[in-house]
Design a protein that fits this description.
The protein has two helices and four strands, in the order ααββββ. It is of the alpha+beta class and about 120 residues long. It folds into two domains: about 60 residues; about 35 residues, no CATH class. Strand 1 and strand 2 form a beta hairpin.
Length: about 120
């Protein structure tokens, strides 16, 4: 099942996952010194390098999400009434995950139906 959330929140989730992965790789590399002594120092060097790259990647993702967030269109969600940000032609509310759009061709109920 695909998770349903706003685009900005998806970018922030990927940034968090990269941060946690980088820290985990660094901790595992440090544990290599305790387990294997001098041989573990080489493993620690590589793990610290890869972990640092992952942390820099997460910094880039967070920066990118922040820049997109400053230029995002602010609107009030019709379902929950809270202010939310929208990227692109369609997005989801950050709070209640309602599908939002400003383009009528993407709207499901854009034209009222005649019931008579």
């Amino acid at each position: 099942m695909k998770f349903k959330s706003a685009k900005i929140n998806e970018f922030r989730t990927w940034g968090l996952l990269l941060t946690l992965a980088g820290m985990l790789v660094m901790v595992l590399g440090t544990a290599g010194v305790l387990l294997w002594g001098d041989t573990g120092k080489v493993l620690m060097f590589f793990c610290m390098f890869i972990g640092s790259l992952l942390l820099m990647g997460s910094m880039g993702v967070y920066f990118w999400a922040g820049m997109m967030s400053t230029s995002a269109f602010m609107l009030e969600c019709p379902e929950c009434g809270k202010q939310t940000k929208m990227l692109g032609k369609t997005d989801r509310c950050m709070f209640c995950h309602t599908i939002l759009t400003m383009d009528e061709k993407y709207a499901e109920n854009s034209k009222p139906q005649d019931l008579s």
